[in-house]
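Figure 3 (text version): structure tokens given as input.
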């Protein structure tokens, strides 16, 4: 029997411990002297009856029996040591992580981010940007160079004059960065000259009028994919750009240029050209006739004539879907009546197509023929939908934010609260001493903490930070941070040592603080503790039930056969009829068939003779039917009866009831699924009976009577 584990947990967990005993909580029952309180049982009882799992509310006694059975099974699992198995621990730890996740975040900060994202999604921003690439872990000299370059670009984009001194300063910085490296190559020199030349060209071109921002983007932006369109990103909304960029877009007024923004890609400036309400999504169908610039004039004319002819048919009342199927040359959609998937105007790759579609004011309204780079189109609006409500989108937004860079804000807020709660104290000197141990091997991914600490004579008995939780003091040592550095090293270009150590140090603090908080959840949150206990018991119960019942019933062939033999009268066939249905090509063949049946000819003799001229004249189908499964057999439910029925296509069916079979037990192969299920129920009842006989169960009836 195939049991779905999560579904099993959902029912089994309802019978698990949900509350911890209080000093004034009376004992309801005890198993082998181990008490269970009234509150624990009441919690389970009310939890079950609040789930609408059945039409009738189960009695207290019914649930007490289920509860006792559950407790006995878990007790046996523990006695068998199932809770010590590595597989059990691994599975429980997986669920522990899932259950802990909601407790390891700043809910208030996360909710604010969700609300902010939804609010921003009401508006779409049209903007262009200019990028100067700069890696997140770039050396300070490279960061400084990129910053100076972007400042010059910003002045040009804003229409300001750039003094020669600012250009000279940038040129000096570029040459210093290039030639300070004794191993610089000819290509390095060429790259440096190119950087300087592009800045000078930009400054000179700025005086020639036009949109200074778009011109600068075309001339110098490192986002080469957008150079031809002046850096234009079109319209976008929340969660479609990296968070710092999004912030700049929504805080910059239309017509203005943002301040310089740093993202993981480098430095950006952006200009906002427009803002509009979110246009939602649309569902359309289209008819397309191909046309392109390379077509000969005559072919282009034929394409125009064809789309016009289709348009005339549409105006005359022919169905759009039929016309799309018959005439559209978009083979991916024509079979489906030309229907496209839902799309947002800002995301559709063909701007003119989206513009025409969103201009339609009501469903079933269609456009006049128009062209795109793919050809002629007619578009009909099928439906349109606005942005869903906040409540409808909340979970989706929460999931997206968890994967978005803005989630770090929530994490930072949570870590800050933990630092305050646990009296976080750090020792900066010990961290800074570690700088001496970082060498080129760290950037090659082969750095060994203990070896390097020993070589650099770093004291490994020092603390890098401490936590204090009431009387408990938790120390995090230098060597622990070294291990973290070692396990998180990657092969990369060499960067500033202080930068890499500081970045890893902050990540290390976050990691260790959150890990410590996870160890405190059971003490701090009774709901979490109870839920984790439920999952623990659920896993144990599933594994043990599988051993004792489900898998055993499937694998125990001898036991299954014995159970079947002892209970075979529970698996009976009702009265059945063995029926032969002869399918005759026409009445003439049916007449010949009836003669041969009267003459007691065999089935083989009948088929051989009547199919001699045409192999399709007659066929036969032999089936054993229960009463109610074949109306012709039902009409003459006796051996030897015959019914004849003429079909609409001229064929004639002759239904012959050969024999009526009395009620008889099904063979095991015919009812194995039912027998297996019943055998599993039998095994479970036997198991519970043995458990109850081998353990002492005491129920306080006075306390039970107070459970409501």
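Below: residues designed for each position.
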């Amino acid at each position: 029997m195939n049991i779905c584990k999560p579904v099993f947990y959902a029912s089994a967990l309802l019978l698990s411990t949900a509350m911890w005993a209080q000093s004034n909580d009376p004992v309801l029952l005890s198993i082998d002297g181990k008490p269970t309180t009234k509150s624990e049982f009441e919690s389970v009882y009310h939890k079950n009856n609040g789930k609408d799992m059945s039409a009738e509310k189960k009695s207290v006694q019914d649930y007490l029996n289920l509860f006792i059975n559950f407790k006995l099974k878990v007790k046996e699992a523990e006695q068998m040591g199932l809770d010590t198995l590595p597989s059990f621990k691994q599975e429980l730890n997986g669920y522990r992580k899932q259950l802990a996740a909601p407790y390891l975040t700043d809910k208030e900060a996360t909710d604010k981010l969700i609300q902010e994202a939804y609010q921003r999604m009401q508006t779409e921003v049209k903007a262009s940007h200019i990028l100067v690439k700069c890696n997140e872990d770039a050396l300070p000299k490279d960061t400084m160079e990129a910053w100076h370059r972007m400042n010059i670009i910003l002045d040009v984009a804003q229409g300001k004059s750039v003094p020669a001194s600012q250009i000279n300063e940038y040129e000096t910085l570029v040459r210093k960065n290039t030639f300070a490296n004794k191993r610089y190559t000819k290509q390095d020199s060429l790259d440096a000259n190119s950087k300087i030349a592009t800045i000078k060209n930009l400054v000179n071109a700025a005086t020639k009028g036009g949109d200074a921002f778009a011109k600068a983007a075309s001339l110098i932006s490192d986002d080469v994919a957008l150079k031809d369109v002046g850096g234009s990103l079109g319209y976008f909304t929340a969660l479609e750009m990296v968070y710092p960029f999004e912030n700049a877009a929504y805080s910059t007024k239309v017509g203005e240029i943002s301040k310089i923004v740093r993202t993981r890609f480098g430095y950006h400036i952006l200009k906002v050209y427009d803002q509009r309400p979110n246009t939602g999504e649309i569902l359309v169908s289209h008819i397309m006739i191909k046309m392109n610039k390379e077509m000969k004039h005559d072919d282009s004319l034929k394409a125009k004539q064809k789309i016009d002819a289709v348009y005339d048919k549409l105006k005359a009342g022919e169905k759009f879907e039929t016309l799309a199927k018959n005439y559209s040359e978009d083979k991916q959609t024509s079979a489906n009546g030309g229907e496209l998937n839902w799309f947002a105007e800002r995301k559709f790759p063909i701007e003119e197509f989206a513009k025409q579609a969103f201009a339609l004011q009501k469903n079933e309204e269609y456009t006049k023929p128009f062209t795109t780079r793919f050809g002629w189109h007619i578009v009909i609006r099928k439906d349109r939908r606005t942005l869903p409500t906040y409540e409808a989108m909340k979970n989706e937004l929460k999931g997206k934010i968890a994967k978005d860079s803005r989630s770090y804000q929530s994490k930072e807020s949570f870590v800050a609260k933990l630092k305050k709660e646990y009296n976080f104290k750090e020792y900066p000197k010990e961290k800074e001493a570690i700088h001496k141990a970082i060498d080129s091997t760290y950037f090659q991914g082969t750095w060994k903490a203990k070896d390097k600490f020993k070589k650099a004579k770093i004291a490994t008995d020092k603390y890098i930070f401490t936590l204090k939780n009431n009387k408990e003091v938790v120390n995090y040592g230098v060597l622990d941070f070294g291990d973290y550095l070692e396990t998180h090293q990657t092969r990369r270009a060499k960067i500033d040592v202080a930068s890499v150590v500081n970045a890893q140090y902050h990540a290390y603090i976050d990691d260790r603080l959150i890990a410590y908080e996870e160890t405190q959840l059971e003490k701090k949150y009774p709901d979490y503790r109870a839920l984790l206990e439920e999952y623990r018991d659920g896993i144990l119960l599933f594994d043990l039930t599988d051993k004792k019942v489900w898998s055993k019933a499937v694998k125990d062939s001898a036991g299954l056969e014995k159970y079947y033999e002892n209970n075979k009268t529970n698996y009976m066939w009702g009265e059945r009829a063995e029926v032969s249905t002869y399918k005759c090509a026409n009445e003439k063949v049916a007449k010949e068939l009836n003669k041969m049946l009267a003459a007691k000819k065999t089935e083989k003799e009948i088929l051989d003779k009547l199919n001699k001229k045409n192999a399709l004249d007659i066929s036969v189908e032999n089936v054993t039917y229960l009463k109610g499964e074949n109306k012709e057999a039902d009409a003459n439910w006796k051996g030897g009866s015959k019914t004849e029925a003429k079909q609409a296509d001229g064929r004639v069916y002759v239904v012959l009831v050969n024999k009526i079979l009395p009620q008889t037990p099904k063979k095991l192969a015919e009812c194995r699924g039912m027998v297996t299920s019943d055998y599993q129920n039998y095994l479970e009842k036997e198991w519970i009976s043995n458990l109850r006989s081998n353990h002492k169960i005491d129920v306080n009836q006075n306390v039970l009577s107070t459970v409501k």
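The two ends are 37 Å apart (CA to CA).
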